[in-house]
Amino acid sequence: MSEECSKGVEVHENKWWTEEEDKILLTQINNTRPFLQRKDTRKAWDTMAATLKDVDGFTRPGIDGKKAKNRFLLFVRQHKSNNNEAARLSGATEDETPKSRLLDDLVPLYNDAATKKRATTPLSEADEKDASIKFIREQAMLRGKRKSLESSDGSDVGGLSKKKLILEAQDKEVKLFRFPPK
Length: 182
Known about the structure:
Oligomer: single chain
Strand content: under 5%
Number of helices: 6
Structural class: mainly alpha
Organism: Aphanomyces astaci (Crayfish plague agent)
Protein name: Myb-like domain-containing protein
């Protein structure tokens, strides 16, 4: 009976990552650097995860690009907090592990790539937003001109036409003072 159960039951992947798996993951990320891709970063992470499955010593068959990226981002956050803590503790020696050395190399590269992405992305979004606002403003101005032309034909003696009449009268007065009739 135990043989039947073992055949039908899938082996679940390990819940905890080993230090060796972390080191292999970071080494592969350092080799391929999928975060440097400008487009199709998801595809780059997926191809990196596919090559990671073929590495000897890596025992996570269910790894995909999303899981690898999330694990890497977790390392980046931990490394940043460790660096902040180490900066506060003066005179304390830090433990140098292969994992921390890899992160020392990768984190600045990742931060540079993230700042470059942020610098280029908002400009294009801002340009698109400005263009759409300009288009809407132009359309509103055209509609406003049409409405003012329709209302100035004499049927509407509302506020806009009164202002226009007052301004014309003031202009005529100014002309009279400048050039008195002879």
